Structure formats: structure tokens, C-alpha cells
Amino acid sequence: MGHDMSGNGRKIVIATHNTHKTGEFRALLGAGWEVEDLTAYPELPVPVEDGVTFAENAGIKAVSAARRLGDGVLVVADDSGLEVDALAGRPGIFSARYAGPGAGDAGNRERVLEEMRGVPAGERGARFRCVLAVARGEEVLASFAGAVEGRLTEAAAGLGGFGYDPIFIPEGQAGTFGELPAEVKNGLSHRARALAGLLAWLDEA
Ligand code: ITT
């Protein structure tokens, strides 16, 4: 293992409080990895995500956790969101709080669908983006981006996934990420694609 950051136990701490993200990392990484998230470290401060890009916010989250967890721990943060063409790229980095604090996933989906009301099928293009930042101690060592193109539905469909999944149909598929099996999402998602870059970097000689 080139960077030798995962140790014998191949443990990774995902610097997130979003347990849906953690679940996807567990599924994507498989049984060879011990995956934790920040719900196991309630004493860690929650950083202010005041970056203006996904990469900046991923770096802020990764270093905030890594400096507290110490040099021996591989920390990876995930900053992600939905970019809608007809909304000039919104909600983008504001995806988590798009409908205001406390509105939650359903409120965020409803706001996007409301803003998209009347936009014709051919103009409903969107993409999910994910940037992963890997940090140790005080430093971001690398970051990796992934995206998946698709289009927005006119109404939510499906109970799978999380966040904006029920209103997003990925390119080449007939249903939303909320309707498709988790394995299909994990085969082509923005998160899977960013993670592929991270895994290649970890394996580099
Ligand atoms: P952490 O910052 O603790 O990781 P978060 O959920 O606040 O958790 P972000 O700041 O990266 O994470 O915000 C991501 C937003 O984009 C949030 O609204 C998610 O629901 C949404 N999102 C991210 N990945 C998604 C996915 O795979 N499917 C659907 N929605 C997703």
C-alpha cells in the first residue's frame, strides 16, 4: 500500500454526520475496511463549511476531524450536492440547507421541484457532484472528484437512497436513484466515481 495510511486494519474515518453517506462508503469499500463516521466521535467540533467550492468544504471537514483524531488515522470527508442546469447550478454547495435549516431532505426536494415547475423535459438536466478530501493531521493530502449526469423528475419517486435521490434519474437508467437498487446507484454514482480515484491513490506505489 503506497501511502500506508490505512494500517493493517484498513480503518477509515469518514468525516461526516450523514449516516447515509457512511452506509454507501461501507457498501462501496466492502468487508476489507473498517468504516467509522463522526457519530462515533461526538466530542469533535462541527466545522463551519464556509468554502465556496465542494473541494474547499471537503478539505475543511477533513482537516477539522483529522487534527483531532491524530496522525495515525486515515480521514476522508465527502462534500457533495446537486447541480441543476435550469437553476444556474443551484443548489450546488448549498444542497444540504437549500430549503433552510431544519427543512430536511424532503423540504429540499420540494424546493427544487417547485423551482423547476413548468421546465420542459428536455431542459431538466442535472448532475450530482462529490469531492472527497483525504487528510492526516493538519494537512489535506489529496482530493478526488466524481460526477453523474442525469435529469430531474417532476415528482419524487422511490424510497431508496437519501437526499435528492428520489427526484434524480441518472443517465442511461429508467428510474430515480430512489427507485433503483442500491447496487445500481453504487455502480455509477458521483460518490463511487470519486472513491475510485481515492482507492487508486491509496494503492499507488
Ligand atoms: P456532512 O457534511 O456531515 O458530510 P451533509 O449531508 O450535510 O453531511 P453535504 O454538506 O456534503 O453533506 O451536503 C450534501 C447535500 O447533497 C445533502 O443535501 C445531501 O442530501 C445531498 N446529497 C449528497 N449526496 C447525495 C446522494 O448520493 N444522493 C442524494 N442526495 C445527495
Give the C-alpha Rg.
Answer: 17 Å
Could you report the average pLDDT, rounded to the nearest whole number? 95
The helicity comes to: 25-40%
Largest sheet, in brief, is:
6 strands, mixed
Could you name the CATH topology?
Maf protein
Q: In what range is the share of β-strand residues?
A: 15-25%
- CATH architecture classification name: Alpha-Beta Complex
* Anisotropy-based shape: globular
Q: Detail the poorly predicted runs.
A: none
Structural class: alpha/beta
The structural domain count equals: 1
Strand tally is: 6
CATH class: Alpha Beta
What's the helix count? 5
Order of strands across the biggest sheet? 2-1-3-4-5-6
Ligand inventory: inosine 5'-triphosphate
- What is the N-to-C order of secondary-structure elements (H for helix, E for strand)? EHEHEHEEEHH
Distance from N terminus to C terminus (CA atoms, Å) equals 7 Å
